[in-house]
Amino acid sequence: MSGGFFRGTSADQDTRFSNKQAKLLKSQKFAPELENLVDMTKVKMDVMRPWIAKRVTELIGFEDEVLINFIYSLLEGKAVNGKQVHISLTGFMERNTGKFMKELWALLLSAQQNVSGVPQQFLDAKEEETKKKKAETDRIANEIHRKKEKEKQEIEQEKIKMDGDGALSRDKHDELDLHVKNDAGGPASIQ
Question: CA-CA-CA-CA torsion for 51, 53, 59, 65, nearest 10 degrees?
């Protein structure tokens, strides 16, 4: 005990105080997408937040505001490591963590590469939705136009039928003309 030297080991050398997260990073298997860091300055989180909340709720079966806000906080920062986020979420999401992280990281990587900061899948889905709405609007407009044409033809046939029978009075004839002109969008004046 002479000489003033310290005996024992330092905290770095003692295995009881080792970095548990570093051990998990080495021992656990991760999806290949998580190998890449994401630059969160290139990602629009306003677009990602609703997806994250919806997907977490679907996977765990109920809406957990604490978990959702925890995920948001993990994604704050310039460069985010997917493996560390995965390890942090494992305690909350258990068996669903891998699936969630794979989907999330694919979206984040896509958003990072896209100039707008929005994942390409979201842009494609929005474009598809717009096409469907336009097709539905066109279909409704065509249906309305077809019905108007059918009504117009029916009135014309009724007019011809009545004229052929000679039973149509002058007032009824003018009334049918007025109705046909109104449907066609023409002036509505009686002669």
Answer: 170
Collapsing DSSP to helix, strand or coil, 12 comes out as coil
Residue 79's SS3 state is strand
Look at residue 39 and give its three-state secondary structure: strand
List all residues 6 or more positions away from 33 whose beta carbon is below 8 Å from its beta carbon: 82, 101, 102, 105, 106, 109
Q: Which two tokens stand for residue 136?
A: 């539905």
> Residue 77: which residues within 8 A CB-CB, separation 6 or more?
40
Q: What is the distance between the alpha carbons of residues 160 and 32, in angstroms, rounded to a whole number? A: 76
Structure tokens at 119: 């994942």
Instruction: Provide the mean pLDDT of the chain.
Output: 81
pTM reported for the whole predicted model: 0.60
DSSP secondary structure of 164-186: HHT---HHHHHHHHHHHHHHHT-
